[in-house]
What we know:
Number of strands: 35
Number of helices: 1
Helix content: under 10%
Strand order of the largest sheet: 2-8-7-4-5
Largest sheet: 5 strands, mixed
Low-confidence stretches: 1-14, 395-403, 433-442, 489-495
Oligomer: single chain
Amino acid sequence: MSHRILLFALVALATACPGNDVQVVEITTPPTAEIHSPGDLSQSFEAGAMVTFEGVVQDQQDSPDRLTSTWSSNIDGLLDEAVPDSTGRVTFATIGLSTGVHIVTLQVVDTDGEVGEDNVTFTLERLNSEPDVEIDFPGNGDSLEEGALSTFTAQASDDDEEDPADALEVEWASDTDGFLGNDTPDATGVLSLATNALSLGDHIVTVTVTDTAGATATDQVYVEVVPANEPPTALISSPLTGDTLLQTTASFAGEVADDLDRADYLAISWDSSVDGLINWDSAGSAGQLGFSTSSLSLGDHTVTLSAQDTGDLVATDSVTINVVGPDDWDADGDGWTPNEGDCDDNDSSTSPGASEVCDDIDNDCDGEINEDLGDGYEPNDSTPTDLGNMEGDGYCVYYLGYVSGSADTQIISGTIHNPDDIDTYSFETDDDWYDCLDQSGYGIQIALENVPPGDDYALDLYWLSGGGALVASSDTAYNANEYVTYEGSYGLSSDTDDGGSFEVVVSPSSGSGFSCGDAYTLTVTVW
């Protein structure tokens, strides 16, 4: 309408001024553009969201369908180009906008090349995902030692490209002690906090991770800070260093303790320098330990007892011992082993160093029994005990003790102390006793009495002056008393000198008693 009015006015002016040159100039106006959506600074969008743009363009000279419109962004450039509809409305939608602050311009161009535009400013925020974090160590319920450096570790991540792991911010805190420290994860998201500042008691330790968009993630762990741990104690009570053990029955005993852990929670091991691990039995509730083994090698060993508590502190004790076989073991504690000559290693009274005593045992292990324990007349096995000169008064003595006159008598208490023992006795006499031979008396009588039960002795009389002839002998029945008499070598001949040296021999004949504790009685009578 305004365009036609202007032209009419120009024609009228030219008619009113004939004779003058009139130049007709067409006057036009530029088109206009107005953005309706989005509103200026009124909206923000997340990356990837659909953004719809709407606007209206107009022109006084051209109809809408003759106008050309474009949408453009200061970040992404040309966004859309279209011809308005019959009402001048232009619109389009997109999900491809970059993040950032956009200045979007709607521009319209008419057929005369004149331009009109409008713009709007809004923010396209990136689509942010929350970070993630998880504490790896310590575990829930773990105990930490007061004053010890404890390390907390965690794993953090964020799915956004804009938030690599090492761009995340980290804070550690305790519900008891407050702020503990900051940390920056490495490129793989590993983060850690080392601290020795936690106070005694219970703590909930929280790690908080924040990404560049301000989103956070947390994780928590419950720990208890306990007094500083002291190492356990370990003691081997048996055997002691220097002891000798019998291989078949090697026994060990000890005890362990700990200031925090129960004794039966300690990890126990017994190790030999020769055979390695030999036992791992747990301690009793009071800390007592004990075991026996028959598997140790012969020879010297250093045996070590180790006790490890739940805080990985270890205590040890060691002994050096010698393990021997039965022939090198002093079972009776007398200081001698079978290989050293002990003939009875179950009897402490027998050994090569023992003294022989009257017990019918080979005490000194020399193969002989009671050999040094005679009857006070020993040694008289081959060298007789001399009874001296024996003289009677010549009166007769009748058989079995009926005596008239006076006799020279010696009574001997002796022993046959082992089966190989022989007792010999010698004496001198003249032949005066022949003066009463015509009275049927006897000149020499030997009586052996109190023979020990179970044994039989032989009794022999030798005339040494007569060339060692056996002139009287008796080997009577079992356990019986024995007697020998001698009247002379030549019967009742009083003119033969039958005096001189005589020898009495007492020897074992049969039986098994023969003990230094069993005495016999030997009576030698000369008239």
